[in-house]
C-alpha cells in the first residue's frame, strides 16, 4: 500500500485497531487559561441529532477558554459516589454561554445522564477550561481533522475564526458514519469542510473512509494539524499526516477514549 492509499478507520473503529499513535512533543501553550471547580446552570438544551445532547451552560465565575479546550463535568449521587468526564467546548470564546456536545453511549455512565436526565435549569458541577496542548489561538494556519464527536473542539475553532474574520486560516476535514450522525454538519459544511461519510455516499463521493488523498489538498506548509476523534481515528489520522510528510511536531492529537482513568474514588 502506498502512502496515498492509506485510509482512516471508520470513526466507530474500536481503539487499538488502527496504526500506532503519533506521540506529540510535550509542548503546551503557556497562555492557555485554566479554571477551577465551579457550578454551571443549564441555560439551554437541544438534541440536534439522534443519540446526543447539546448543553448550553451559564458557567458561574467563568474563565474564558481558548478554542480546543475542554471542561470536566462531575456528577455526584446521593450516596456520595462521583463520576467525572471531559467534554470539549463547542462554543467560541466570545459566546456568553459554554456549549458542550455529548454523544450518548448506551452503556455510558455520564453521557447517558447528561443526555437523558439533565433539564434546563439544572445545576452541574464543572471544572474548566482545561488543556494547554490542543488549543488554537486564532492567529496561525491550521488543518482540522475530526471524526464523529471529535469534531466538537474543531467547531469551537471554526466559530472563533468566523467571529474574528479569519476563516481563511482554517482547512477542515471531518468524518462520520452518516451525515445524520455528524455533529454540527451544516455549520461545518458552511465553513467549507470536506465531509467524508463511511456508511453512505455524500454528494458524488461514495461511502469511504478518509484517505491521504483527501487531506493532501488541504495541507499547506506552516499549518498546525489538530486531529480529534476516537483513539483509533486520531492515531490513524496522525499516521496519514506523517505519511504525507507532515512533521510530528506540527500534529496535535486529542483522543476521546474510554475514560476509566477519569473515574475518581468515592
Ligand atoms: C479531552 C476530552 C474531551 C472529550 N470531549 C468529548 C465531547 O466533546 N463529546 C463527547 O461526547 N465525548 C467527549 N469525550 C469523551 C467523554 O469524556 C467520555 O469518555 C464519554 O462521554 C463516555 O463517558 P461515559 O461515562 O458515558 O461512558 P463510560 O461509562 O466511561 O464508558 C462506557 C463504555 O463506553 C466506552 N467508551 C468510553 N468513552 C468512549 C468514547 N469516547 N468512544 C467510544 N467508547 C467509549 C467504555 O470503554 C465503556 O465500554 C472527551 C474525552 C476527552 C478525554
UniProtKB/TrEMBL annotation:
<dbReference type="InterPro" id="IPR017938">
    <property type="entry name" value="Riboflavin_synthase-like_b-brl"/>
</dbReference>
<keyword id="KW-0479">Metal-binding</keyword>
<feature type="domain" description="FAD-binding FR-type">
    <location>
        <begin position="35"/>
        <end position="136"/>
    </location>
</feature>
<protein>
    <submittedName>
        <fullName>Ferredoxin-NADP reductase</fullName>
    </submittedName>
</protein>
<keyword id="KW-0001">2Fe-2S</keyword>
<dbReference type="InterPro" id="IPR039261">
    <property type="entry name" value="FNR_nucleotide-bd"/>
</dbReference>
<feature type="region of interest" description="Disordered">
    <location>
        <begin position="1"/>
        <end position="35"/>
    </location>
</feature>
<dbReference type="Pfam" id="PF00970">
    <property type="entry name" value="FAD_binding_6"/>
</dbReference>
<keyword id="KW-0411">Iron-sulfur</keyword>
<keyword id="KW-0408">Iron</keyword>
<dbReference type="InterPro" id="IPR008333">
    <property type="entry name" value="Cbr1-like_FAD-bd_dom"/>
</dbReference>
<feature type="compositionally biased region" description="Pro residues">
    <location>
        <begin position="11"/>
        <end position="24"/>
    </location>
</feature>
<dbReference type="GO" id="GO:0051537">
    <property type="term" value="F:2 iron, 2 sulfur cluster binding"/>
</dbReference>
<dbReference type="InterPro" id="IPR050415">
    <property type="entry name" value="MRET"/>
</dbReference>
<dbReference type="InterPro" id="IPR017927">
    <property type="entry name" value="FAD-bd_FR_type"/>
</dbReference>
<dbReference type="GO" id="GO:0016491">
    <property type="term" value="F:oxidoreductase activity"/>
</dbReference>
Amino acid at each position: 500500500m502506498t502512502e496515498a492509499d492509506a485510509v482512516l478507520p471508520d470513526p466507530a473503529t474500536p481503539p487499538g485497531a488502527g496504526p500506532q499513535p503519533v506521540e506529540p512533543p510535550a509542548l503546551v501553550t503557556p497562555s492557555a487559561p485554566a479554571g477551577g471547580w465551579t457550578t454551571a446552570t443549564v441555560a439551554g438544551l437541544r438534541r440536534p441529532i439522534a443519540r446526543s445532547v447539546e448543553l448550553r451552560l451559564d458557567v458561574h465565575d467563568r474563565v474564558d477558554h481558548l478554542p480546543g479546550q475542554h471542561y470536566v463535568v462531575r456528577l455526584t449521587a446521593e450516596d456520595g459516589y462521583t463520576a467525572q468526564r471531559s467534554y470539549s467546548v463547542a462554543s467560541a470564546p466570545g459566546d456568553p454561554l459554554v456549549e458542550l456536545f455529548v454523544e450518548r453511549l448506551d452503556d455510558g455512565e455520564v453521557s447517558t445522564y447528561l443526555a437523558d436526565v439533565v433539564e434546563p435549569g439544572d445545576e452541574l458541577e464543572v471544572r474548566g477550561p482545561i488543556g494547554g496542548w490542543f488549543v488554537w489561538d486564532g492567529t496561525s494556519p491550521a488543518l482540522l481533522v475530526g471524526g464523529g464527536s471529535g469534531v466538537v473542539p474543531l467547531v469551537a475553532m471554526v466559530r472563533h475564526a468566523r467571529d474574528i474574520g479569519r476563516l481563511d486560516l482554517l482547512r477542515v476535514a471531518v468524518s462520520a458514519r452518516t451525515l445524520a450522525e455528524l455533529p454540527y454538519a451544516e455549520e461545518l459544511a458552511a465553513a467549507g469542510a470536506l465531509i467524508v461519510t463511511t456508511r453512505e455516499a455524500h454528494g458524488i463521493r461514495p461511502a469511504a473512509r478518509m484517505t491521504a488523498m483527501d487531506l493532501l489538498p488541504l495541507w499547506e506548509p506552516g499549518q498546525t494539524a489538530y486531529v480529534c476523534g476516537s483513539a483509533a481515528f486520531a492515531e490513524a489520522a496522525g499516521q496519514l499526516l506523517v505519511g504525507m510528510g507532515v512533521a510530528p511536531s506540527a500534529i496535535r492529537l486529542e483522543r476521546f477514549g474510554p475514560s476509566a482513568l477519569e473515574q475518581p474514588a468515592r
